[in-house]
Amino acid sequence: MGPLNGFRIIELAGIGPGPFCGMMLSDMGAEVIRVDRIAKGVGAPKDVLQRNRQSVAVDLKKPEGIEIVLKLVESADALFEGFRPGVTERLGLGPDECMARNEKLVYGRMTGWGQDGPLAQAAGHDINYIGLSGALHAIGEPGGKPVPPLNLIGDFGGGGMLLAYGLVCALLEAQKSGKGQVVDTAMVDGAASLMAMFFSMAGRGFDDERGTNLLDGGSHFYNTYETKDGQHVCVGSIEPQFYQLLVEKAGVDANRFGPQMDRDQWSGFKDELEDVFKTKTRGEWCEIMEGTDVCFAPVLSVFEAPTHPHNVHRGTFIEVDGVVQPSPSPRFSRTTAEILHAARAPGEDSTEVLSSIGFAQDELDALREQGVIG
């Protein structure tokens, strides 16, 4: 049983960062009940982000549906939603209505821009939020345009994971105070938080021109290189002793490559290392550098990563219902996190969940007949 065993959390179904938050919490043992839309004849999705949850299908446009969610709230520790500001208030499921039923409830809100501000009601996606935070500008080749780093920074790192963190913080506080509160999680705020180190570096030599700094591909010793077989490897030999080992194992001139931090020479050193790495295949470079203090790794695809010996040993990936996916993380010595089941079909658990909060079978049958639940 994971460390959040015993906590009941209601998830108003959404996309992207919300489901990721739900996955993080349910992987850690929380009982997460996902409130889905009614979708007749729809099977369980092959969606890793929806694993480990029970699904209750409810029509939130009907007053009876709203009442069902409020009944769920009465016995819950937290609820989270990912709609635009004001949507749950208009539904009758805003913080005031929910916390009137349960004053200890933690109410999590996931948006791109936040609950207030000039952009609060505007549509957006990860790329927009990281654009406003300073993150996107810093990523890309020198002289080139900013490059979207998948939707990892805004949606997941600065969104869903930050919401999960915020919810757990508020749940800890509620245990002391006996009172809940609203957790306003904005992806633009979260992306800015992830940039904290670079804001501290901004006044200490960090160049505003992307692709010219130590950690953004500007240096030759923190970079990726193509190999003879068209694959890639990455090195991160920042510390002097690791850099010396890179120079040694790459077989380049130690004297000429000696001035590691001379930015004026980085471009030339990169060009030479590009030629060197193309002389051998990725597998050959792994035999030479992997497991040493060069700070080296092969660049693996999502199809290759699960089969790497280190990941296999660690159990970093697991297969559930035919879908290979990341295992729960982090790991705990005593309260083991685990995947209990894959994603459920919308409404698959409606009867079980609603019965547990006091609905009789004849009530459930009537609600189903009226199209309130699925």
TrEMBL record:
It holds the Pfam family CoA_transf_3. One of its GO terms (molecular function) is catalytic activity. PANTHER family: ALPHA-METHYLACYL-COA RACEMASE, SUCCINYL-COA--D-CITRAMALATE COA-TRANSFERASE. This is Carnitine dehydratase.
